Amino acid sequence: QVFVVGSFVVACTVKVARLPRPGESLDAADFLSEPGGKGFNLAVAAQRLGAAVDGAFVVGEDAFADVAAAAFRRQGFPAGMLARRPGSTGGGVGFVDRAGENCLAVSLGANLSLAPEDLDAAALARADLVMATFESPDAPIRAAFAQARARGVETLLNASPARPIDPAILARTRTLLVNEVEAADLGLLDGDGRAEPRAIEALLGAGPECLVVTRGAAGAFAYGGAGPQVQSAFAVPVVDTIGAGDAFAAGFAVSRLGGCTPAEALRRAAACGAITVGRFGALDAFPTATELDRFLRE
Ligand code: ADP
User: Fold this and answer.
1) Ranges of each domain in the chain
2) How many A from CA of 219 to the centre of ligand 1?
3) Where are the beta strands (DSSP E) in 77-235?
4) pLDDT digits (tens, 9 = 90+) for 212-251
5) Where does substrate bind (predicted)?
């Protein structure tokens, strides 16, 4: 069972020939409004891969809260996973251009009120993996990870969007996953995108057993445990890159949970990312375990 310290955002995306300039109105080909958020995406991507999922999510009291409730029902997630409280549900607005490049702005709203009291103790106690992203505040992540590590349970932090990592969270993070931009912000890559071995050693000394850095079409690398590992990206036609990082994170975590070595988990994670960039949107783009196995055989 996977427990997600979650975030929920309704993402509205339009597909445009090129990204708009300030002051410009563009015609857009497709419009997609999709339930998402890094936490919700992780939960759905993990479930697609066959994991039983529980977690803690907060939405506001508005029309998007109903969208959230419907989305959780559709996934068959436990009803107790979602709390409503006064305020706005998380919302995002984004553009995707022909090359699959995207930009997105997110207002986290009610997600920022997620608190340790929102964590269901029984659900947490059943978990054998706890995952979180930085769309959630530090306090519930710290509480959930502390409980997990006290039982020797795996934890994965996708430290996205970037912010300094609370040392108490870092100390209880088994796998830290970041993209290149976030890795650079943390001082783990130099200005040219090369790994900074000393900064990485220091980070690994502060808690994580494994650091994974994703690099878009350049693939990913990992440090720690079995030593440095490099995984190239699978060459696929790109529709849009939304959700690639979430698919990768879920792929890595669920594969490790299933007993894969770090190298094999990296390969499966990269395949999850590749399948997701080949499809429009995020939720419907995440592969099932069967699709992942078929992709890896081809
Ligand atoms: P994020 O969406 O968090 O910025 P990345 O863009 O680094 O994450 O993508 C995560 C992973 O998804 C990459 O490590 C890679 O394995 C896969 N991926 C991303 N973009 C592509 C691409 N254009 N082609 C193939 N795989 C990709």
Assistant:
1) 2-6+37-62+119-297
2) 6
3) 82-84, 90-96, 102-107, 129-133, 154-158, 175-179, 210-214, 220-224, 229-231
4) 999 999 999 999 876 789 999 999 999 888 899 999 999 9
5) 37-41, 135, 246
| DSSP E strand stretches across 153-250 | 154-158, 175-179, 210-214, 220-224, 229-231
H-helix segments, 33-173: 38-48, 63-75, 121-126, 138-150, 167-170
- Domain spanning 2-6+37-62+119-297 has what CATH number? 3.40.1190.20
Question: Is the pTM here over 0.90, yes or no?
Answer: yes
Is there a catalytic annotation at residue 66?
no
Backbone φ and ψ of 5, nearest 5°: -75, 105
Cross-strand pairs, 107: 91
Cα-atom radius of gyration of the chain, to the nearest Å? 18
Beta carbon of 273 within 6 Å of any ligand 1 atom:
yes
Contact call for residues 153 and 282 (beta carbons, < 8 A): no
37 is in an annotated binding site: yes
Examine the pLDDT at 13 and tell me if it is beyond 70: yes
| Nearest Cα residue to 6 out of 163, 151, 144 | 144
**Cα-to-centroid distance, 244 and ligand 1 (Å):** 5
203, 188 in Cβ contact below 8 A?
yes
Residue 45, sorted as left (phi over 0), alpha (psi -120 to 50) or beta, turns out to be alpha
